[in-house]
Amino acid sequence: MSPDHLSAYIKSEALQLGFFACGISPVTYLKEEARHMESWLAQGMHGEMTYLERNRENRYNPALLVEGARSVITILYNYYPDEKLEKEDNYQISKYAYGKDYHYVIKDKLSLLLRKIEEKTGKRKARVFVDSAPVLDRAWAQKSGLGFIGKNTLLIHKKGGSFFFIGHIILDLELADDQKSVANACGTCTKCIDACPTGALKPFQVDARKCLSYLTIEYRGDALPQELKTKFNDWIFGCDICQDVCPWNRFSKVHNEPLFSLSHQLKSMRKTDWKKLDKPKFKMLFKGTAVQRTGFKGLKRNIDFITY
Ligand code: B12
Asked: Is the pTM of this model over 0.85?
C-alpha cells in the first residue's frame, strides 16, 4: 500500500473509531517549540510541575521515543458535553473531567487503530501517547493541520472549537503527511485573556502558577494563595473559563463517548453536598475519573479554600 493510500486508510479508520479528526506529520525536531518551552521553564512558569523539566530532548524529538520513528499520527477526541453541571448553588468541575478518565479511554482506542494499521503493514515499532508522556501534543496537532494554537495556548479546530483531547501514535512508518497548516485565527480577540480571573494569560502564554487549572489540580501545597481566594469563581477542579468565552467554541459539537457523560450523582451535587464531601462519597463520585489526580485531600482543600 502506498503512503498516500495508507494515510487515507488510517484517517478513515480513525473517524470510524469515533475520533473527531486525524492528521499526520513527519517526525521532526520541534525547534521553535523547544525555544518557547525552554524560556517558559526558565521563567519558572511551570510552578511545581517539575516533571516538565525531565525528558526535554524526548519532548522535542519523538525519534528518541520510538526507534525508527518516521510519522506522528495525531487524533482529536471531542469531550464537549450535552449536559453541564448546574451553575446555581454549585461548585464547578471542568467538562474534561465529567466522565471516565480520558487517558484510558483514548489509549484503548489508539491501540485499536494501531492494530488496524498493523493488519495492513505487519508489526510496527510504535507507541501510543495521550497527555502524560513527554510529547508536545498541541504542537503535533498544529503541524498535522488539525487547527491553530489560540491565545489561550490551546489547539483550536476551526469547525469544532477546542474542547478536544489530543492523542498520538508515533511509529516507524513513512506516511503522506498533511502539508497544510492552519493560520492563527484569533485576530484582535482577547476574550480569553480578559476573562481569566487570575490574569494567568498573556497572548499564547500561560503562567501556570496563576492558572486555576494548575492550582486546583497540579499544585500540591496545603495552602492555596490567599490573594486569589475571591478569584476561583466556584471552580474546584480544573477551569474552563478561557474556553467557555472563546468565540470558536460556538462550533463545539456534543461528544459521542458515553464514558464521558455526567453521572446523575454528580449532576445532583450542590454546595451543601460538596461541603459535606467525605472519602466514601468521593470514591463513589470519582472512581476511574481524572479527578483522582487531585484525590480526596486535594478536592477537599479546594472546596474548603473557597467556602471558608
Ligand atoms: C502542563 C500542561 C498544563 C499546564 C500548563 C498549560 C500550558 N499551556 O502549558 C496547566 C496545568 C495550567 C494546564 C491546564 C489545562 N490543560 Co493542560 N496540559 C499540559 C501538558 C501536560 C503539557 C503542556 C506543555 O508542554 N506546556 C509547555 C508550555 C511551554 O506550553 P505553551 O506555553 O502552551 O507553549 C507551547 C506552544 O504554545 C508553543 N508556543 C508557545 N509560544 C509560541 C510562539 C510561537 C511563534 C510558536 C511557533 C510556538 C509557540 O510552544 C510551546 C510548546 O508546545 C499537555 C499535554 C502534552 N503532553 O502536551 C496538556 C494539554 C495542553 N492540556 C489540555 C487541557 C484540556 C487543559 C485544560 C483545558 C484543562 C482544564 N479545563 O482545566 C487547562 C487549560 C489551561 C490553558 N489555557 O492552557 C489539553 C489541551 C487540548 C487542546 N485542545 O489544546 C492537553 C493537550 C492534554 C491532552 N492531551 O488533551 N495544562
From this structure: yes
Alpha carbons within 13 A on the beta-carbon side of 106: 25
Beta bridge mates, 169: 73, 128
User: Measuring from atom 87 of ligand 1, which residue has the nearest CA?
Assistant: 131
Whole-Å CA distances, 176 to 128, 179, 191, 196: 19, 9, 37, 40
Cβ contacts of 220 within 8 Å, gap of 6 or more:
48, 298
The domain segmentation of the chain, as residue ranges, is 3-82+93-171
Query: Residues for the chain: how many in total?
Result: 308
Using CA positions, which residue lies closest to atom 11 of ligand 1? 214
Active-site residue flag, 178 = no
Please identify which residue in the block is written with the cell numbers 524526548. 58
**Whole-angstrom distance between the N-terminal and C-terminal Cα of the chain?**
63
Work out the number of other CB atoms within 10 angstroms of the CB of residue 87. 9
Chunked mean pLDDT (size 10), the chain, 308 residues: 96 98 96 97 98 96 97 98 97 98 98 98 98 96 97 98 98 86 96 98 98 98 96 97 98 97 97 98 97 97 95
Q: Which residues line ligand 1 (CB under 6 A)?
A: 32-33, 36-37, 40, 49, 52, 94, 96, 130-131, 135-139, 149, 152-155, 162, 164-166, 204-206, 208, 211, 213-214, 218, 238-240, 242
What are the φ/ψ torsions at residue 58 (nearest 5 degrees)?
-60, -40
Q: How far, in Å, is the centroid of ligand 1 from the Cα of 242?
A: 13
Rounded to whole angstroms, the Cα distance separating 136 from 132 reads 10
Half-sphere exposure of 84 (CA within 13 A, CB side): 15
3 state SS of 218: helix
Q: How far does the centroid of ligand 1 lie from the alpha carbon of residue 220, in Å? A: 19
Residues 82 and 102: their CA atoms lie apart, in Å, by 17
